[in-house]
Amino acid sequence: MKKIINRIVIGLLIIGFVSNSFYHMSTSADISSDYEPYVMAPLTKITDWSSFTNQLETLKENGVHAITTDVWWGDVESEANNQFDWSYYKQYAEVVKDAGLKWVPILSTHQCGGNVGDDCNIPLPDWIWNLDSHDTLTQKSETGYINKETLSPWANQIIETQYQELYQSFAQHFSQYKETIDKIYISTGPAGELRYSSYASSDNWNYPERGKFQAYSDIAKQDFRESMKQKYDNLSQLNTAWETNLTSWNQVSPPTDGNQFFTSGAAYQSTYGDDFLTWYQHVLTNHLSLVADIAHSNFDDVFHVPIGAKIAGIHWKMNDPQMPHAAEYSAGYYNYSQILDQFKASDLQLTFTALEMDNSNAETSPYYSEPKTLVTQIASLAADKKITINGENALAISSNDANYSISRYQNIAQHLFNEDFKGFTLLRLQNIVHENGSPTNEMNRFINILGVTPIQVNFIVKNAPTSYGDTVHLTGNRWEMGKWNSPNGQNIKLSWDSSNQDWRGSAYIAADRYYEMKAIIVGANGEIKQWEPGANHTWASPHHSTNYTIEW
Ligand SMILES: [Ca+2]
């Protein structure tokens, strides 16, 4: 018994040591054991159901698990309040079910259109704008633009009633499809993402500008004042903290100096900046909490599936020397850890995007874009907090240049299989399947790298010439094996098995794929001491779990 405890303690020490050097994530390359590939449906509505059926059957044949679909509020409740028409989406669910696929509906309470890559125009139901004042219902930007992509996060009462009615009606009408529905996404902002409408082209935004704060409706400004009254109690204490000489609460306001708020350093170094940005984000996380509660209360007992929500991949300006993170701050992302805490508290899965992108413009003005860093940061936080994370690509992957496309899928695979993602949703259907149902050139690339089925393999390495303190790892040609010991990947780590006197470990890799691999000996300092000599092992993985033994 004592021996076992000692071994556990030593094991824990080793895990602790290694995890510090690898973003606190699982320390082995691996495909998540329940990994699934998903495909995002077109934004526009299906008009040719027989073509769509052919497309879905092709997805199914290629191992895609589910299709993810926007269910537009502006479609189903457009006529009048509580006059729902689900007929289109019922037909949709029926077709998905018949194709043998699972379905992931997104309850899209945002407008379709007005965002990057949108090819549709489905505004919110008209009648909602009569339920309260525009000041309450809409977001108002720094430059006075009124945004109607979603209800504003200050429209709590309207949201509570309307989302409740919408979700309840969805649950009633789709409970018969509960075997088909795999997960349900809620929309908590523009493009379905928990954020403000800070970067809307309708508000004259162009990439890669920082965007605009959306805290200038009267109700938003009043809310900020009230929040500061609660925090400081009286103006004199606020003046001390902010180093100001305000004489009236009415002078307490979101920033009115545009970029200066950032370039002056106020956003980064002043108590005022911290107070404003903390409050601005808090309004979003409150909104997330509210919508998640409505979703759980309507869906959990009916569908018994996970509820998911998204945050946006705001990768530009991250590294801007004049205004670092200004685009994220303007969208409401001030402290990702606290945002993810709300995901955890609200029992939500998280979807994050931009997995295909790289950091090639990290130092390039005006982009200063670091999507790869951002994805790893978010995945690391999700792993720390034990939040299930799923990935998406930000922009369609479709190229005549096969190498370019493959490099995008490889970027995605690196994140998925080294940073503990549970699933991946490819945008979009039309890039991998032609209208007649035949696969495009992208299909094979996508399926080979990302459309994988995990199988558990027990790896065994015999006769490795290790010394005390060494460990044996495996690495190979694919990201689920750490891509030949790439700095962005992780190897498959084995542990000493004293009864068999060899090194063993199990990992999930892909069924039916071609692998090349080698064992390596890693010293106690984490550095590679020795590669297995000779040619690479080559292996066509089987369809089911198995053992794989290497004689060093
Ligand atoms: Ca309603």
TrEMBL record:
Ca(2+) binds at E77, E165. Keywords: Calcium, Carbohydrate metabolism, Glycosidase, Hydrolase, Metal-binding, Polysaccharide degradation, Signal. Its EC number is 3.2.1.2. SUPFAM superfamilies: (Trans)glycosidases (SSF51445), Starch-binding domain-like (SSF49452). GO terms for biological process: polysaccharide catabolic process. Residues 449-552 form the CBM20 domain. InterPro entries: Carb-bd-like_fold, CBM20, GH, Glyco_hydro_14, Glyco_hydro_14_CS, Glyco_hydro_14A_bac, Ig-like_fold. The active site is at E193 (proton donor), E392 (proton acceptor). One of its GO terms (molecular function) is metal ion binding. Substrate binds at D70, H110, D118, K310, H315, T353, N393, A394, R428. It catalyses: Hydrolysis of (1->4)-alpha-D-glucosidic linkages in polysaccharides so as to remove successive maltose units from the non-reducing ends of the chains. Binds 1 Ca(2+) ion per subunit. It is an enzyme of class 3 (hydrolase). It comes from the Bacteria. Its cofactor is Ca(2+). Belongs to the glycosyl hydrolase 14 family. PANTHER family: BETA-AMYLASE 1, CHLOROPLASTIC, BETA-AMYLASE 3, CHLOROPLASTIC. This is Beta-amylase. It comes from Gracilibacillus halophilus YIM-C55.5.
